Structure formats: C-alpha cells, structure tokens
Amino acid sequence: MSEAEIDLAAPELTPDDFLYIDDPYFSRDNVAIVTGAASGIGRATAVSLAANGLTVVGADIDEDGLEATGDRIQSFDADGAFHGVETDLTDDDDVEAVVEAAAEEGSLRFVANIAGMQHIASIAEFPMEKYDLLLDIMLRSPFKMAQAAMPHIEDTDDGVGAIANMSSVHGHYATKDKPAYITAKHGLTGLTRAIAAEGEGTLRGFSVSVGYVLTPLMLNQIEDTAEERGLSKREVIEDVMLGQARTKEMMTPAEVANLFIFGFSSHAKHLSGGDLLFDGGYVNTYE
Predict the structure, then answer these.
(1) CB-based contacts of 172-176 (< 8 A; 24+ apart in sequence)
(2) pLDDT, tens digit, for every residue of 186-199?
C-alpha cells in the first residue's frame, strides 16, 4: 500500500460502541469529571458516562470542542447530562473551580484524568518549556484534581467513588523520543497508588493503560515520529506503533472509554491501586 493510501481518521462515536452497565451509582444524581473532554478518549469517556446515566462535567481548554461533545451526547438522547466547563488544567484555580462546579451538580463520585499532549524529541533536544507544560497537564493537574475532588467524594453518604488516570503502555516501558510523556505516565502509577492508599477502600484509584488509539493526538504523532526518525508514515504505523503488538489494529476511543465505565462500576470494587492493561500484547509478549 502506498503512502498516499494511508487515510487514518478518528472514528465517529455511535451508541452501539459503548458498554452499558446497570449500576446503582450510575444516575444523574452522581457526577463524574472528565478532563480532556473536548476530543478523543476524553470525549468518548464523557459520552459513555452520560450514556450510562451519570451527570458529566467535562473540563477542557477547547470550548468549541466541549460544545461538540455536548451536542454528540444530546444526539444520543443519553439518560445522563453534560456540562462543559472551559478549564486551563495548568491553573490551580481553574482546577478547583471545575471541581466545585461539579459538586454543585450532585454527588461528585468519579474523576477521569484523561487530558494529555505529546512532544516528540530526544532527551538532549527536548525543550524544557514543553517538558514543563506536558508534566503540568499530565501529572501535576491529576494530582491537583485528586486533591480537590477527594474531600467531595469522601463527603458523600457512603464515600464510594473512584479517581481514574489515563496511563499508557509507556507507563510500563520506555521507547526513545518520548521522555516527558514516559516520565508523566510512570508518575501517574505512583499517584494512582497513593490515591488508593488514602481511599480507605471505598474511594478507589486506578489507571487505564492502552497502546495506540485512533485519536487526533495519535494522528499528529504519526507525522511527528516520521519526521523525527526519518521514516515514512506507513513505517511508523507498522514498525514503530504496531510492531511489538500482537493485536494488529489500533484501539478506538470508545473501546478505551469502556474500560473507564467498567472501572468506575461496582463490578470493579476490588480494583484499587491497579492498572487496566489492554495493550494488545505490547508489554508482556516478546519476539
């Protein structure tokens, strides 16, 4: 297949894509915060939580994207509700404000820290301003979100809830030219375990780790990696991204969102401090 024939695109979300769980905590009275809700995995997770009946507060710096997420939820005639809040996750006051806004909508029980970014460069050439921005969004912000949200979850009638962090196969191993991303994802493992340690068993922390997902972030990454390594886009996809995987296809945002649905549900009450690793064989299989 020629380079011109590569036409990847993030798939459109449909109601049939999602896992639906009849759960006592999945109701409009209970609230979930989703960061990065304007696109990709964040949008899919916001849609899936609303489709399962929860009130969802989406946090993102992209106001237009949040509106599009709300429109998609409305088009599904979801049982839940959606409120988009324009949020700069690098601003502590904004993070605290979105948590307070969520608490005003009902009982805050769930947080999905999904917002992320990527920058492709070697350690020697990595711009420190990009390193600081990436770590602020992907590690410091989840810590601040947990700090602000945990008291609200603990103050519910039974203290039941969960904070979930979007990790990655890069939270389990390292590849070259992604040093800041790898640092952030490994840090999220520690944060997840710290949340679980302080959660008293009812407030859980868990993470979700996947391989490559068809999102706008990933599509941009293909071109960046091709340029950084002097490869074609096809070589990046087949050799770099899917070379080690046993499942030779990328995940969809909805498939990842379903892992958050399960992790938040009562079926996962023993998932605390652990990681849902759905990676197609990247981490634990070798040539």
Answers:
(1) 172/209, 172/277, 172/279, 172/282, 172/283, 173/282, 173/283, 176/122
(2) 999 999 999 999 99
